[in-house]
Prior knowledge:
The structure holds three protein chains of three kinds. Chain A has a single domain, classed as MetI-like (MetI-like fold, Orthogonal Bundle), CATH 1.10.3720.10. Chain A is built from eleven helices and no strands. Chain A has helices at about 5-15, 30-45, 45-50, 80-120, 120-135, 140-150, 155-180, 185-190, 195-230, 245-250, 260-285. Chain A starts with a helix and ends with a helix. Chain B is an all-alpha fold. Chain B has one domain: MetI-like fold (Orthogonal Bundle), CATH 1.10.3720.10. Helix content of chain B is about 80%, strand content about 0%. In chain C, a hairpin with a 2-residue loop joins strand 6 and strand 7 (about 155-160). Chain C has three domains: about 40-70 and about 200-275 and about 490-515, D-Maltodextrin-Binding Protein, domain 2; about 75-180, Periplasmic binding protein-like II (D-Maltodextrin-Binding Protein, domain 2, 3-Layer(aba) Sandwich); about 280-490, Dipeptide-binding Protein, domain 3 (Roll), CATH 3.10.105.10. Chain C contains 17 helices and 21 strands. Chain C is α+β, with helices and mostly antiparallel strands. Chain C starts with 7 loop residues before the first helix and ends with a strand. The interface between A and B is large, with 53 and 69 residues.
Amino acid sequence: MSIAAxxxxxxxxxxxxxxxxxxxxxxxxxxGGVSILGTMxxxxxLAPLVTRHDPTSQDLLHTLQGPTxxxxxxxxxxxxxxxxxxxxGARTDLRVxxxxxxxxxxxxxxxxxxSGFYGGWIDTVTNWLVNIVVAFPxxxxxxxxxxxxxxxxxxxxIAITIVGWVSYARIVRGEVIVAKRREYVLAARSAGLSDxxxxxxxxxxxxxxxxxxxxxxxIVLDILAIVTLGYLGLGVQxxxxxxxKMIADGQTFLTTxxxxxxxxxxxxxxxxxxxxxxxxxxxxxxxxx
Amino acid sequence: xxxxxxxxxxxxxxxxIVLGVTILVFFLIHLVPGDPxxxxxxNQATDARVALLHHEWGLDRPLPVQYEKFMGRLVHGDLxxxxxxGMGAGRLVVDRLPVTLWLIGFGxxxxxxxxxxxxxxxxxQRDRLPDHLVRAVPLVGLGFPPFWVGIVxxxxxGLHLGRLFPVGGYGNGFxxxxxxxxxxxxxxxxxxxxxxxxxxxxxxxxxxESDYVTTARSKGLPERRVLVHHALRxxxxxxxSVLGVNVGFLVGGTLVIEQVFAVPGIGQLMIxxxxxxxxxxxxxxxxxxxxxxVLVYLLTDVAHALLDxxxxxx
Amino acid sequence: MQGKxxxxxxxxxxxxxxxxxxxxxxxxxxxxxxxxxxxxxxITIARIEDSQSFDKTNVFQNESIWIxxxxxEPLYLAGKDGKTLNxxxxxxxxxxxxxxxxxxxxxKGVKFSNGKPMTSADVKFSIDDARAQAKGWGYLDAAIxxxxxxxxxxxxxxxxxAWAPFLADIALFANGIIPNHFAGQSRKAFxxxxxxxxxxxxxxxxxxxxxxxxxxxxxxxxGKPYLDKVTWTFVTDENTRxxxxxxxxxxxDEFPPFNSITKLKSTPGVTMNLFPSTRxxxxxxxxxxxxxxxxHVRRAISYAIDRAAIVKSVLFGYGKPANSFLPPQVPYYSAxxxxxxxxxxxxxxxxxxxxxxxxxxxxxxxxxxxxxESAMGQVIQQxxxxxxxxxxxxxxxTSTEFNDIGKxxxxxxxxxxxxxIADPDELVTFAIDxxxxxxxxxxxxxxxxxxxxxxxxxxxxxxxxxxxLYAQLQKQAASDAFLNFLYYSxxxxxxxxxxxxxxxxxxGNYHLEDAWLG
Lengths: 289, 314, 518
């Protein structure tokens, strides 16, 4: 693992070495993050209740309208209700981003755990793969994969997973290499515990914190990647409401109807803020004593 | 281990990585659906004409044979000819490399200029309002995609506020580049700054509460000096680290920025050649890119070791 | 475009001052059209794509072709109406009674940009080379048997058979005239900096950035061109192109999107031009998908598409619903072709007559990032829902989309056509003749009666009879609903209001020798 990556991990740990261990309700960033994200999830879940219009139904006689009592945030170029599309967009994007992080998280953590623990040829091969993926231009890989697999949410998961597991593998591997020299692991080994037990009962809980913290910021990067794919036309399929496509489509109206692309952008920022707070809070709470 | 030995060993590691990258890019780009012949022929693509072009380009041969030819040429430093432009793919890439390096270099510089003072402010005002603001506001740079930020910057600084900067392009000569590349570089900086501020603030907090700062303080060194000294030093270390980790993402991210600002760099070449299925150019760009990333990693680690005595060569 | 710049801060300050001065100057003297063209100045044209190649005989990309047309010119050229053919490097021609021999008289005093006079040997060489290009445009010259040059200013074309589109084919850019034997260079070398008789000559190219041409001092139209230099740049993002135009960095913006037209029309300093075009947009239906092989289903779909709504919401009113697969700017277009127009009652009746009366699922290919296709697709999706036809989107990038449509690996897909010659034959053969090499516009449509009409029209040299044949053909094709003709749209070019005489012809080409800066 490159020194650079270790240092970042170190820096993240360092940030949370201060202060004392708090309970969750006394960790402001955690509370802040949870309330922001909770509200968004709630809105997404209750979408049919908080909106009055179908997010995909068009009204070609009332396109590009400003806010009215019926359309709180106006309508887009096809006469669709912007507020509905924002709320339903949260459904799409939160789900896609969460799932797009889940798979690389699980795969990367397992790979990092095994390669860090056993070392040897497993580690060499893993490192080689990791380095190839890292040295490969992210967007070439993503775009080529989306081209090859076709666009659509399922293929976005696959493409992001193929690229994304690398970060988790690196983080977890680095942690494992440090942790396996610690006394509790050495003690467990000499006590004759099985590898699986050591790995999952003793190592995993201790090394996973960093991966979880990283996952929070990774969700933001994934939303951005999905937005960029939307700009290149390779994102979520229309007419499904999605913030990325809304920003990309609205960008052509930037000089006349700036709100069309700015509102979904703000939604992404709020999500990013929530996740970032949550990451800080989690790091505080999950920090081993 | 000595620095020289370390560098040589790391460079030797480059070979299997680059080999892996060539295999991956070759098969990936050839297996992607789409056909350069149909892209170039457009509506005039009859089956007969497509076959003629395939034969001319050697695309009618089996893939392994094509890979063998590609590697054979590569060993002699020949990256093949662009299917779209009909000129050397290597030269196309080399001509555009400086543009992207400008963008990344200038963007990095601007991001440091933004991040260091803000992180220092946040670290000294921990958990107070400035800290919260510094941690929240830059997230706008993460939330709004570069193509949006870029257009807004162009609107404001390229058109409305007295046309301070040209609307896109690369400019001529050093000052011309500086002038033209300011807005695209600022867009790059908006993307990196949030990450940089975060890690910089964290490392500053660590330093501020470490023993040697307490010692420095007890010696009566002014707080400001302690901060500036450590802020700068850590600023450089953090920047190097963050850039090292994110360089791949960064270069990838420039492709959209180059698109918006009509900057003729590697990213633009990359995206156009993928869209056109210009296989030799995609291969050339990827190869150059991966060598660059690996080298940046190496440089990062070396620079890091030189800047931070606690890190030793592995 | 940009001169040397002083230090950065100086530039900022002077920029502010300059802008202020410019603003004052603009408010002081309102722009007015000067009557007589002025000589001098240079312009920049920003395009959506970079030019690929300047080998006019083998290139299919408009962004390349339109530049080659400034350098190389053919014997005849289509006029502003897109229908008449005017003498250009030739002054006239005579036709033998059997319709198989054409004798052209060349214009006197025409010189190439290298100063050498143009002769019949150059013409013979140019067209012999063009028609030999199998992977290029050679097929349009297939009727030519041989070319002879009885005198330096006479060229005789011997045809294999009477061929009505011949003069239109000769006016194709690929048949532009170049010096004999590529002026002593290799074919490849010649086309990296081609020589011709056109108003502009080669200056320089920075691949991926720009192409620059300069005035041809030997141009045969006295006093023209007016401009010293023309530069074509490459700016992908449409917003950036618009801002560059508004900021005065460029003078011509290629294809601003439909949604910006209204705004650009009222933008000071900008002229929003809409030129009549030969562009027709279609929704193709692949007959290898069983429901689409049923003529009633195809008619039902055609009836269900609200073209007026598409024109209004997707084109913002800047277009016209199409009624034939030929556009109005093409000779022999029939206004009474009877393309099926929006009528949900008729649509339901037609679907009821088909074997798929209960509706079915169909996939629509949509170009990734193609705003117009995506918006249009969503309108069509909603309309067809009313028939019980469930349209599923499949987004693909342009190359994959082309490939899938070209290989007929699709069900519904968008396509369009712009004419290359001032004759319907090229498009008709492409669209309805399975032998045309494109499976009847990739649909698989095959109606022998229609194909027969097309073959007859190709050999019919009497314009009145030809018009009747094409009218009949268009009517039958519309009734077979083999393609959905969606709309006709104008060419959209936003220009600086200082630029005069910029006109885009229905075939898409522009004559920069007429353009000047006021």
